[in-house]
């Protein structure tokens, strides 16, 4: 069994029991993990509780049909792709199915080789898109997550901390005197400072727990889940000390540290902005207080 296909979950949706069983055996023989549903409504319940990569759905089904299921998936299951299967007598074109949002369609009776090829192509394209998505969220210079990743992850982490009732700290880290250093030594040396700080952030934080980001220019951020204010202070002081020990000329760090507590009286987006603004203010206070220090706001 191919490890790349074995990790792909395919959901077969068809109201014909014989077709369901036949396709399930076939898809499993290709090396995929296969689930089945006899109706679109059942498929919805499956997807609400289980991650599904690909749905192979019949077009004509009682009550909720294949196109209605496709519309639901496009709206609610953004990481799930759909292939529609149709009988030869059904008056719908390839263009109509693709325009509705499916990635492919296949005619019944389904040919084994054709189905295997379509599933393989869909799996390959999904893997390529995931890689591109991953690359789009990495800073090209430092190889740590970028601002796009930060903006997406921040709200998710704050909400998770609120729901599970654990502390979450945010540190905004800015390099002092970086422009002067760049002007004096050149951008190549400046890039070494940025890469060096990214490595320091990773070395001083908890692997697979904390997440470090380069927001752009000489500004970085660190999310510290399940860290109390005291623990957050210890971590950022360790970052500050390590940076000084590396000795990047006249540059130092100004760090703003805040506790990320969800304010349910504010809309989520507005609350996120308020927390980020507070962290920025704390960082600027550190600069105004002589740089090379940490300021905490609550």
Automatic annotation (TrEMBL):
Keywords: Phosphoprotein. The keyword Phosphoprotein applies. One of its GO terms (biological process) is negative regulation of bacterial-type flagellum-dependent cell motility. It is an enzyme of class 2 (transferase). Residues 166-298 form the GGDEF domain. Residues 9-123 form the Response regulatory domain. Pfam families: GGDEF, Response_reg. This is diguanylate cyclase. The lineage of its organism: Bacteria, Pseudomonadati, Thermodesulfobacteriota, Desulfobulbia, Desulfobulbales.
């Amino acid at each position: 069994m191919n490890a790349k296909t074995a990790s792909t979950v395919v959901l077969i949706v068809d109201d014909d029991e014989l077709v369901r069983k036949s396709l399930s055996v076939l898809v499993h023989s290709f090396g995929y993990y296969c689930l089945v549903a006899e109706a679109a409504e059942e498929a919805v319940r499956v997807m609400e509780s289980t991650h599904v990569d690909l749905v192979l759905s019949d077009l004509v089904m009682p009550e909720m049909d294949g196109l209605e299921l496709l519309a639901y998936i496009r709206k609610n299951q953004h990481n799930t792709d759909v292939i529609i299967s149709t009988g030869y007598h059904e008056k719908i074109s390839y263009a109509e199915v693709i325009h509705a949002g499916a990635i492919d369609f296949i005619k019944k009776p389904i040919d084994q080789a054709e189905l295997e090829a379509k599933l393989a192509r869909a799996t390959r394209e999904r893997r390529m898109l995931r890689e591109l998505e991953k690359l789009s969220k990495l800073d090209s210079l430092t190889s740590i997550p970028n601002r796009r990743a930060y903006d997406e992850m921040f709200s998710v982490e704050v909400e998770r901390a609120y729901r599970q009732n654990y502390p979450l700290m945010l540190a905004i880290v800015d390099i002092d005197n970086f422009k002067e250093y760049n002007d004096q030594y050149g951008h190549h040396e400046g890039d070494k400072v940025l890469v060096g700080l990214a490595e320091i952030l990773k070395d001083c934080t908890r692997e697979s727990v904390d997440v470090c980001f380069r927001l752009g220019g000489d500004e970085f951020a660190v999310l510290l889940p399940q860290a109390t204010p005291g623990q957050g202070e210890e971590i950022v002081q360790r970052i500050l000390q390590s940076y000084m020990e590396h000795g990047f000329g006249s540059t130092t760090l100004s760090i703003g540290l805040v506790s990320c507590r969800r304010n349910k009286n504010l809309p989520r987006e507005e609350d996120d902005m308020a927390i980020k603004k507070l962290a920025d203010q704390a960082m600027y206070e550190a600069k105004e207080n002589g740089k090379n220090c940490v300021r905490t706001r609550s």
